[in-house]
Predict the 3D structure of the following.
Amino acid sequence: MNLKSTLKSVGLSVAGLIILIILFMSWMDVDPGEEGFAYRPYGGGVDVESSYTEGTYFIPPWNDIITYNILQQSKSYESTVMDVNGTDISVEVAVNFSVKKGNAARLHLKHGIGYIQFIDDKVKGAIKDVVGRYTYQEVYSSKREALEGEIEEILVADFKGNFLVFHYVEISDVNLPQNIATEITNKETQKQKNLTAEQKKQEQEYLAAAKIATAKGDSAKTIIRATAEAQSIKIKQEQLRKSPQYIEYLKAQRWDGKMPQVVGSGGGLIIDLKK
């Protein structure tokens, strides 16, 4: 074998190896929860019409697939902002969002891979804007749901035209200056003490009312019983007046089986009916 043939054989082997490498490198994966799009650096750039979901794809080696996470993502923010009266408040807010399906390429064209910075700016701006409408007392306690609703309204509008989907916002914590936090704690403690005292007072009043009701009930029972007995006596007296035989009935009811005691003289009888 001469040198020319040897070089030709080596060249073919190298070419074959290069082709194998190219073919191997042309297979690209899109993982679960991701969406990809084609990027053609030598012609066309980002292909907004392409959309690759989970799977393995053959892409020419001079092109690429860029992928974005399209699952719901949550990010927390801690911002120090001023309330309506100028008091500094530290607010912790969690926001849940996702990339709009089928729009990863458009999101990339508008914001690039740093689209998270766009979200950060919008969330921080919404927090500052909304918290600034309320007092620290309202932010700390009674108006959290209202604040969340207003922040949500702002972010829904901001995300809608930027290929993002807003899911929810939650104010997870509010931290006040130490002197204000201590004041609120003391007020809450006193409130609980007053509530406990009021509960005890109501309990005592309830027990007293229950005793009075019981006493009234016993008195009513006594009156009813006395009335019934008086009525019974009255009925018996009426029976005695109307029916002499009734006295014989009473004798029979009260007889203990013994002969009645007889007291008297001259033929008169007195029968003791009390036994």
